[in-house]
Amino acid sequence: MRKLFFSNATRVFFIVLGLCVLPIYLTPQSTKVKSILEQADKLHDARDYQGTMTKLREAEKIEPNNPEVLWRLARAYFDIADQQPGVSEVQKANLYPGFEYAKKCVELAPEVAGGHQYYAILIGQIGELEGTKQKITNSYAVREHTEKAIALDPKEDSNYHVMGRWHFELADLSWAERQVASLIYATPPKASFEEAEQYFQKAHQLKPKEIRHLLWLGKTQLKLKKKDQAKKNLQLALEIPAQSDSDKVMQKEAADLLKKL
């Protein structure tokens, strides 16, 4: 068989030609996905979670392994579940597939904060859904991935909220639940309401108009017997205009707590 030989100059020509041609095929696709993600983010900010999901599905068809698509899909599933927190069927239909997207994102791109953020959020919610034993089992993963998310994106308020919830939920375990924890781990996770308060305060500082942060800050301060501070923050939670069904549920809880004070 006759062999073909190319001079160095010829090889350089083909390499340069390839570099010039390659963007013709890659750039339009990447640009299109970027545009779709921008549209999805606008819908998310407007609390149109179903619309967000529809847009993200479009992006997934083009780039199914794009980490920016994956963590946003995880977020979309969480947002939909979050609108009906007491409906088990809705939780199961959204938390589990959402977690798989977050897990895939972490595996493909461990440097992307959003993947760790929603890995932690969703595995924590799954633990709540499956009961005390699973909640405690999942608690270490919640802490691990939230701490990674904070390291990668220290300005994201939601990560501090998750750490606040982590401390609150574990500090609030009943005696029976603590017995379960001691059976799962020789040393159960250490948590406190004091640290929960610090994390909720940090989340509130980063996003002052978030009802979720104020509600949980108030609830934590009630646990710490800081009645006046709790009352102030719960009242602030009621003064912020609700933007979603989830906000309305949280404001009702804040109002119910204030009536008891």
Characterize the structure shown.
By secondary structure, the chain is mostly helical. Helices cover 80% and strands 0% of the residues. The protein has helices at 8-45, 49-62, 67-82, 88-108, 113-130, 132-152, 157-171, 175-184, 193-206, 211-223, 227-239, 245-259. The longest helix is centred in the N-terminal third of the chain and has 38 residues, at 8-45. Residues 1-28 have low confidence and may be disordered.
Spans of 5+ residues with little confidence (pLDDT < 50)? 1-28
Q: What does the radius of gyration come to?
A: 23 Å
Mean residue pLDDT: 89
The percentage of residues in β strands lies in: under 5%
Order of helices and strands: HHHHHHHHHHHH
Would you summarize the structure shown here?
With 261 residues, this protein is mainly α.
How is this fold's topology laid out?
Blueprint: H1 8-45, H2 49-62, H3 67-82, H4 88-108, H5 113-130, H6 132-152, H7 157-171, H8 175-184, H9 193-206, H10 211-223, H11 227-239, H12 245-259
Helix pairs in contact: 1-2, 2-3, 3-4, 3-5, 4-5, 5-6, 6-7, 6-8, 7-9, 7-10, 9-10, 10-11, 10-12, 11-12
Structure keywords:
12 helices; 80% helix; mainly alpha; 0% strand; disordered N terminus; 261 residues
